Amino acid sequence: MTETPVRVGIVGCSSMGRSHAEALADIDGAALVGCADHTAETARSFGETHGCPSYTDHADLFADAALDAVCICTPNGAHRDIVVDAAADGIDVLCEKPLEITPDRVEDMVEACRDAGVTLACILQRRLFPTMQFAREVVRDGRLGRLVFADVRVKWHRDRSYYDDSSWHGSAGLDGGVLFTQALHGIDLLQWVAGDVSRVAGTGDALYHDIDAPDTAALSLRFEDGALGQVSATTATRPQQPISLEFNGTEGTLRVTETGVELFEVNGEKQPVELPDPRPEGPHVAQIRDFVEAVSEGRPPMVPPAEARKGLDIIFAAEASDSRGEWVSVPSLGGLGNLGDADD
């Protein structure tokens, strides 16, 4: 790390912005030097709390604060323009998940940062959970034999107030629905552990909440190595359950949640579980720390665009499948725009 701190701004000063500010306060080598939120009172209060200038327009923050990097903590569908503007000003970007909610908007962000030579990273901190790192090691090392099936269940509950009291939750244009806002973490973990997905068939709908985007979705997957998989996602059921992933191979089965290993058996025998140590500061702070260090050291971040897009590719293919009523190939990187055109 250099002695000069990385000067960081935050755009989006609600709950996620507060989480980023608290994390930055605990990271040596980072300094929060400005914030922006389109709601003036929210921006003002945030700036007073964290001792930094506040703005109601991100462009003014970028022009005035001499930023090295910015954390994007706005609603899902409000990332693209801010990231493109940051890239134009030479500012490295850490974007909360998802990168965006349409293929073309994701592509615009990635191209802008690539062309400007700035870093673009995405928060997918659950990759740092010890159980998920253990699952990746077990599956990738072949300890379950040849993988046959892999599935993830994100069966959460959101009260009606979660949608009614928000200006963007449940919005088709800003939220995108359960796959983007709730299930993306699980989908990302599934492919991170089990490998790349080649084809998807999926459907979704608002089955409980009166919203414009799906609150429930089901996906069938074909992995590139031939294994099959499923994704179940909802905010409409009770009780809320932890994200759960299960991997079934020709020799054994592993089932994990974010907090523990529920089953690990090979050839009919229970297997010992040795989890890596958790990050002492927590996975979210740890990933923000990684980004700050990546900017300072000039190295790639933990989750660059190519990794951040893998889970989104699966979701975009699922949306296309629902529209067409058929299996859809997951696009290769750089082919997102073609998938979007087919859905118009």
Key terms:
about 350 residues, alpha/beta, Rossmann fold, Dihydrodipicolinate Reductase, domain 2, 2 domains, 6-stranded parallel sheet, 15 strands, about 35% helix, NAD(P)-bd_dom_sf, GFO_IDH_MocA-like_dom, Gfo/Idh/MocA family oxidoreductase, nucleotide binding
Describe the structure.
- With 344 residues, the chain is α/β, with parallel strands linked by helices.
- The chain has 2 domains: 6-125 and 282-304, NAD(P)-binding Rossmann-like Domain (Rossmann fold, 3-Layer(aba) Sandwich), CATH 3.40.50.720; 129-266 and 314-324, Dihydrodipicolinate Reductase, domain 2.
- The chain has 12 helices and 15 strands.
- The strands form 2 sheets. Strands 14-13-12-11-7-10-9-8-15 form a 9-stranded mixed β-sheet. Strands 3-2-1-4-5-6 form a 6-stranded parallel β-sheet, sandwiched between helices.
- Helix 5 packs antiparallel against helix 12 and helix 11 (305-324) packs parallel to helix 12.
- The longest helix is centred in the last third of the chain and has 20 residues, at 305-324.
- It is globular.
- The model is unreliable at 333-344 (pLDDT under 50).
